Amino acid sequence: MSDAVATGHIPVIDLSPSFSGEDGPMSVAEEIGAACESLGFLIVTGHGVPSATITAMVKTAEAFFVQPVETRVVSMPSSPYVFRGYFPSEASALAASLDIETPGDLCEVYCINRFDDQADAAEAGLKPGREAFFAPNIWPEGIDGFKPAWTAYYAAMENLTRHILGLMARSLGLPADWFVPFCNQHTTNLVANYYPPQTDRPLAGQLRRGAHTDYSSLSILYQTHDSGGLQVQLGDGTWLDVPYLEDSFVINLGDLLAVWTNERWVSTMHRVVNPPRAMATDSRLSTVFFHQPNYDALIECIPTCLSPQNPARHPPTTSGEWILAKLEKTVG
Hints:
By secondary structure, this protein is α+β, with helices and mostly antiparallel strands. The chain is 28% helix and 18% strand. It has one domain (49-331): Sandwich (Jelly Rolls). It is globular, with a radius of gyration of 19 Å. The two termini are 37 Å apart.
């Protein structure tokens, strides 16, 4: 266990040395590897994402969620299994993915992917029965700059993810480009989570986001301000607040990467708790890039995570099969 985790802190890693020099990338990779083994959560600074790109994304997301509800619902998908557009509060309960029964989460969502061009979708694996994963986006009307802001942010997250996966590969004793063939047709969702003011008291067991682990490879979260609420569960069962650091991203591993590394790395339970009643009228906004490998990518134990003393703990699966099983539980 790292010193940071042992003392109850989320590791903070400066990525800037990894963008240049010979020794910088490896030193940062080692820091990332240690964080992935001990907690599966880290905060990165020096990431290189332009502040203007972040600001535009946040402003357009905020502009969407402050619209009247009758305007927001126009952007809902035709089915709850099509993860595009707007989802109202209580539409899902993330704890259900772990077979924990709770009321719906007090969170509104807007979601996009990268498949506006159905030729891109076909190249990435679109087939009958997979339409929900490769559907075109739903773009709201009446918000200046929404589409260009979100597509620019999506592209920035793609670049950052590619860089981080390269560092992760190096930390596992693999070539920096090892993950590329598994992720060159990725099916990643970009989500804005809006937690509205709680004018009524939540139901028993109801949170802004119920306790869950993420499903995919890794998630990159941006917290818009120090509103609090995000917590990660430590090994002893206690909950640790994830701090807000200006111009930083929170990165956490998903279940798929834990399986891929034969549980050498961990996917950690986290949640978003309700605010104290004195702050119940405060809203909260975050953005999350849920990186998901290619739909047909075969996920089996990474060679450097396997040995006679540590055989594969999970049967092979595909990225698409894995995520579909998880998502069906949260809205089913």
